[in-house]
Amino acid sequence: MGRKLQLVVLAALCVASCGPGGGTRPWRSALDDVVGAERAFAQLASDSTVQFAFMSWLAPDGILFRPGPTQGLAWLEANPMPADMRLEWEPAFADVSIDGTVGYTTGPWRSGRRGDGRTDGGAGQYVTLWRLSGDGYLAVLDFGTGNDSPAATPALELSPEPDPMILPGDPASATESVRIADEDLGEALAASGGPVWQVYSHPSARWLRDGTGPALGVASAPNEWGREFRTLGADAAGSGDLAWTWGEWTPAGEERREPAGYYLRIWKRQSDGSWSVVLDAVSRSR
Asked: What is the pLDDT of residues 110-130, one digit of tens each?
């Protein structure tokens, strides 16, 4: 079966399945709770230590990028963050799946040392993916990009309500189909660079890159020509409408295969069953 046909079939299976796995929550209530979880996470980092906050809010299978994807709690135990580390962040945008089981927030972060009063520490943009568990929402993935100076926090923007034409689907089929979409996108970017974003991204997509603030809208899509992307993982919400992929990239044609950086993409299923990128974050590790 050809890759494009396989993707269409998997998308159809996703829509036609019996429904989402796990429990569901009212969409707006879930959205508010995801924002609340992010703010509580940041507040705990301020009130105690950054290490304690991450150990408290990260899911047992949560992924951190240090710089590549790694099992978060194990990494934190082996590499505890300094007790005097200061890390501040605030959500600027949030969205959740139609069943409320998965959501994400993104916004600016800044770091330094407690009590030094300096404002020239590290800064950038973060993305946190949240999944509903028996203990409430826990962070299942944390990704960030770096900037030269802190960015002002804009007023919080919330995603519009989901399109009622998008019905719940099967998360396993969604995960497989979005992985195929991510691999196809990687091949297209290596061949054509930026123009392919017109096909693969949502008109209001967000772009996060090292060295700059967030860019909004497909017209602001970066040109990725000269980079080869390789998918390392994929996952989806219980309702199969919100999914994410992550991986690594290297300069095209480079003999050395060590990753030059990593990426995270968040995808939303459209009413026709296709996937569109709504957030694309790319970091550089060398």
From this structure: 999 998 766 567 999 999 999
